[in-house]
Please model this.
Amino acid sequence: MEYFVIGDEDTVLGFSLVGVSGIACSSPDEVRAAWSKATEDKEHGVIIITDDCAAHIRDTVDRYLFTMSFPLVVEIPERGKASSSDLRELVNEAIGVSI
Model:
Protein backbone atom coordinates (compact mmCIF):
# COMPACT_ATOMS: atom_id res chain seq x y z
CA MET A 1 0.00 0.00 0.00
CA GLU A 2 1.34 3.39 -0.99
CA TYR A 3 0.47 6.96 -0.14
CA PHE A 4 -0.23 9.57 -2.82
CA VAL A 5 -0.57 13.31 -2.27
CA ILE A 6 -2.49 15.91 -4.27
CA GLY A 7 -1.95 19.54 -3.35
CA ASP A 8 0.03 22.71 -3.80
CA GLU A 9 3.71 22.58 -4.77
CA ASP A 10 5.00 23.01 -1.21
CA THR A 11 2.82 20.21 0.17
CA VAL A 12 3.78 17.79 -2.59
CA LEU A 13 7.46 18.69 -2.19
CA GLY A 14 7.28 18.19 1.57
CA PHE A 15 5.76 14.74 1.23
CA SER A 16 8.25 13.80 -1.48
CA LEU A 17 11.04 14.34 1.05
CA VAL A 18 9.72 11.34 2.98
CA GLY A 19 9.15 9.21 -0.12
CA VAL A 20 5.50 9.94 -0.90
CA SER A 21 4.72 10.50 -4.56
CA GLY A 22 2.19 13.04 -5.69
CA ILE A 23 1.10 15.73 -8.10
CA ALA A 24 1.09 19.49 -7.54
CA CYS A 25 -2.10 21.14 -8.79
CA SER A 26 -3.19 24.73 -9.26
CA SER A 27 -6.41 24.41 -11.27
CA PRO A 28 -9.58 22.31 -11.12
CA ASP A 29 -8.60 20.45 -14.31
CA GLU A 30 -5.22 19.55 -12.83
CA VAL A 31 -6.89 18.30 -9.64
CA ARG A 32 -9.29 16.10 -11.65
CA ALA A 33 -6.40 14.65 -13.66
CA ALA A 34 -4.35 14.01 -10.51
CA TRP A 35 -7.33 12.34 -8.81
CA SER A 36 -7.81 10.06 -11.83
CA LYS A 37 -4.16 9.09 -11.79
CA ALA A 38 -4.22 8.45 -8.03
CA THR A 39 -7.32 6.24 -8.14
CA GLU A 40 -6.25 4.28 -11.24
CA ASP A 41 -3.25 2.81 -9.44
CA LYS A 42 -4.55 0.17 -7.02
CA GLU A 43 -1.32 0.41 -5.01
CA HIS A 44 -2.41 3.84 -3.73
CA GLY A 45 -4.13 2.89 -0.50
CA VAL A 46 -4.16 6.39 1.02
CA ILE A 47 -4.76 9.57 -0.95
CA ILE A 48 -3.79 12.73 0.90
CA ILE A 49 -5.38 15.83 -0.60
CA THR A 50 -5.26 19.44 0.53
CA ASP A 51 -8.60 20.98 1.41
CA ASP A 52 -8.26 23.60 -1.34
CA CYS A 53 -7.75 20.91 -3.99
CA ALA A 54 -10.55 18.79 -2.55
CA ALA A 55 -12.90 21.77 -2.87
CA HIS A 56 -12.42 21.67 -6.66
CA ILE A 57 -13.74 18.10 -6.82
CA ARG A 58 -15.90 18.05 -3.67
CA ASP A 59 -18.55 15.64 -5.04
CA THR A 60 -15.92 13.09 -6.04
CA VAL A 61 -14.00 13.37 -2.76
CA ASP A 62 -17.20 13.05 -0.73
CA ARG A 63 -18.22 9.95 -2.66
CA TYR A 64 -14.95 8.30 -1.67
CA LEU A 65 -15.16 9.56 1.90
CA PHE A 66 -18.69 8.32 2.50
CA THR A 67 -19.24 5.32 0.23
CA MET A 68 -15.94 3.79 -0.85
CA SER A 69 -13.82 1.71 1.47
CA PHE A 70 -10.65 1.97 -0.62
CA PRO A 71 -8.59 4.07 -1.08
CA LEU A 72 -8.69 5.98 2.16
CA VAL A 73 -8.91 9.74 1.59
CA VAL A 74 -7.32 12.16 4.05
CA GLU A 75 -7.94 15.91 3.70
CA ILE A 76 -5.28 18.16 5.15
CA PRO A 77 -4.97 21.95 5.38
CA GLU A 78 -2.88 23.61 2.71
CA ARG A 79 0.53 24.93 3.74
CA GLY A 80 0.32 28.20 5.63
CA LYS A 81 -3.21 27.72 6.91
CA ALA A 82 -3.62 27.87 10.65
CA SER A 83 -4.39 24.51 12.20
CA SER A 84 -4.61 23.35 15.77
CA SER A 85 -3.50 19.86 14.76
CA ASP A 86 -0.14 18.86 13.47
CA LEU A 87 -0.14 17.17 10.05
CA ARG A 88 1.12 13.88 11.44
CA GLU A 89 -1.77 13.80 13.92
CA LEU A 90 -4.31 14.40 11.12
CA VAL A 91 -2.99 11.51 9.04
CA ASN A 92 -2.64 9.22 12.08
CA GLU A 93 -6.25 9.89 13.09
CA ALA A 94 -7.52 9.21 9.60
CA ILE A 95 -5.70 5.92 9.04
CA GLY A 96 -5.60 4.70 12.61
CA VAL A 97 -1.87 3.97 12.74
CA SER A 98 1.15 6.01 13.58
CA ILE A 99 3.39 7.08 10.69
The longest helix spans residues 28-40. The mean pLDDT is 86. Helices lie at 9-16, 28-40, 51-56, 58-66, 87-95. Residues 2-95 form a domain with the Rossmann fold fold (CATH 3.40.50.10580).
